[in-house]
Amino acid sequence: MRVVVLGAGFGGLELATGLSGEFGDALDVVLIDRSDCFIFGFSKLDVMFGRTPPDAVLHPYADIVKPGVRFVQTEVRAIDPQRRHVETDAGAFDADFLVVALGADLHPEATPGLAEAGHEFYTVDGAFALRDVLATFAGGRVIVAVTSTPFKCPPAPSETALMLDELLRERGVREKSSIALVMPMGKPIPPSPAASDAVLATFAERGIEWLPDRLVTELVGERNVAKLSDGTELAFDLFMGVPQHRAPEVVSEAGLTVDGWIPVNPHTLETRFAGVYAVGDVTSVGTPKAGVFAEGQGAVAAEHIAAAIRRVETSADYDGRGVCYLEFGGGEVATVDVMFVTGQAPVGTMGGPSLELAARKAEFGASRAERWFGKAWSTT
Ligand SMILES: Cc1cc2nc3c(=O)[nH]c(=O)nc-3n(C[C@H](O)[C@H](O)[C@H](O)COP(=O)(O)OP(=O)(O)OC[C@H]3O[C@@H](n4cnc5c(N)ncnc54)[C@H](O)[C@@H]3O)c2cc1C
Questions:
Q1: Ligand 1 test: best mutation among 13, 42, 338, most atoms within 8 Å of CB?
Q2: Cα–chain-centroid distance for residue 129?
Q3: Cα 199 to chain center, whole Å?
């Protein structure tokens, strides 16, 4: 029996780990990714703001030693969900169960002027390159902005604005600078009014301009202005954008998507194709695109695949719950515990910000590094 897992991000890693724990060598799990290493999303911010050196946040897949799991570094070229057949640069794979966990692709080139006149901080290369830019920035008008919806980790642009404020203060150039945050939502953390109020109060305290309900649609390099979806323009000296997100082309070409993303049964994560599951950012399951949700979905899909292999029933049911960590600057972190249930308004409660929750966030990363890669890892 073979399970082929496409994508070794939060979702694919958790799923492969769950199946290995359940079956060991008795099950053939092929885990495929084009990259040679994993990186937590929040590590991109740590590197960008000079908290951590780049090589400390890369987790090589070569470290994965799990009974039954074989990692293959290759590009997925074609997926046939009817036949559960996959074509890659390393050959073809047939699966009894197929899992699509390929995440969301990022397209900076889709926003005119972004690549030429600005920076994006969502890809590994983009975030790492901004480390040097921020270390030498002499001060000026900074825009942190989202260019389309949906986008990964909705709190990340707010965290970026707060961490930027802190860095510019430390570097002594905050008084010469302004920070504007352009966001498509009305509130920074829509499911939690308390978290949104706390973030907005902190923005006001630190002089961060909050521009809700709009996007940046274009940068005009000659004039150093960003065009906004409400028809206005905003001048900048440094632009830090969240690029457009799309399902990987290989997924849409496979006929798996509807309205851009893969629809799944919100309880089991199975697609409309028998034996084919999808987890994480590549789906339209109804949770935000964030690692903590991808991981929860990977765990539930693993239980359903395990039950199907054993030909037993399972009560495993995806609950749409996740705890998001939010950097406030000053080393403090808040948590937002959110629940997204199909057909209901999402609800969230806030904790912190505090140094104690910063330690809990570090433990979150360390526990995943231990579980997925079998290694001790610290973010500090
Ligand atoms: C700046 C930033 C901060 C973030 N902070 C947080 C946070 O604090 N908490 C949180 O929960 N989430 C956070 N996120 C979001 C989180 O990183 C993603 O939501 C999460 O990684 C999604 O997991 P996934 O398994 O769905 O996809 P991914 O982790 O994106 O994994 C998909 C994998 O598929 C591979 N792949 C894609 N196409 C192909 C192909 N054709 N062939 C082979 N391989 C392919 C990719 O290489 C990738 O490894 C953050 C994101 C960013 C950008």
A1: 42
A2: 19
A3: 20
